[in-house]
Request: fold
Amino acid sequence: MIMNKMFYPLALALVAALATTGCKHGFTKVTPLPEGPSVVGPGTGPGLIPGGQMPTDTGPSTVQTGGGPTSEGDINGMIPDRAALAEQTVYFAFDSYVVKTKEHGKLVVVAEALKSDPNAKLLVEGNCDERGTEEYNRSLGEHRSLAAREGLAKLGIDPMRVFTRSYGKDKPADPGHDESAWSKNRRDDFVLLHPKP
Reply:
């Protein structure tokens, strides 16, 4: 009986301490971009999302430019051209937001299109396959779009011209449920944005 009286307050205190401190999840590697906040990468490997760790949730309608939120009006005031860069879709490995070496040529084409039209801007839409939670995939899609923006910045494109959005797993290119479909859904789509005349 005395043991029970001592055990319950200690157990309650331990549970309260664990509940308030929680676990630290996060990223340790930061790659700064010119004139903007940073793109964050995990500390366990280049561009791999560690299982069980959750990147920051970005929400379904987040649009970013230069690393910070911007209004939908900035994009709605532009004329979207999905066809112009449709062939330059960048594909990713499972659970990764590293732009693969074989995909870099596509970023070069996108950068050249932006350089040839200094008034144009770009929307990068990050997408994921159906595996994983909605929150996790929304965040991974945002990391993928930010990785493309970083790649374009290294090619001389002002990051303030590049908007990012994550659709997570909401807009699959292929509705299948196998690796063939999933590999098409882990992607960044590029939408060229022209100012209204």
Residues 134-154 form the longest helix (21 residues). The helical segments are 2-21, 72-76, 104-116, 134-154, 179-185. Confidence is low (pLDDT under 50) at residues 18-71. The chain is about 35% helix and 25% strand.
